[in-house]
Amino acid sequence: MLEISNNVSLADWEIELSAIRATGNGGQRVNKVATAIHLRFDIKRSSLPTIYKERLLTSKDSRVTKEGVVIIKAQKFRTQEMNKEDALARLKDFILAMMVIQKRRRATKPTKGSVKRRLASKANRKVVKQTRKKVQF
What we know:
Elements: E1 2-3, E2 9-10, E3 15-20, E4 36-42, H1 50-57, E5 69-74, H2 80-98, H3 112-135
Antiparallel strand pairs: 1-2, 3-4, 4-5
């Protein structure tokens, strides 16, 4: 069971874990041992509250497929158990990150003083550039 928060948790049947061979460099055991973990979590089938489901399904994250399945591949560690823990922690972090409400951006205008300083510095650069051209032979 994976606890997301005090009120929300996921049962083991909701998360599909499968062992796969890790990519990258390896030694003699590279083609024999499946240490990487492939985690699949179907959002629509899960027991998450509807607000969680809506936020996860509308996210533009590349880990969420069009069918509403979260796919996480964990291969950071050398053991299957550590990669399993890593995948579950990443799923939990992903779900919690989707629940954070972003602040709305308020459009602001630059102050009159900052506009004046910017235009003055541009005029100064133009003068310097013109004087350099006159000095060259």
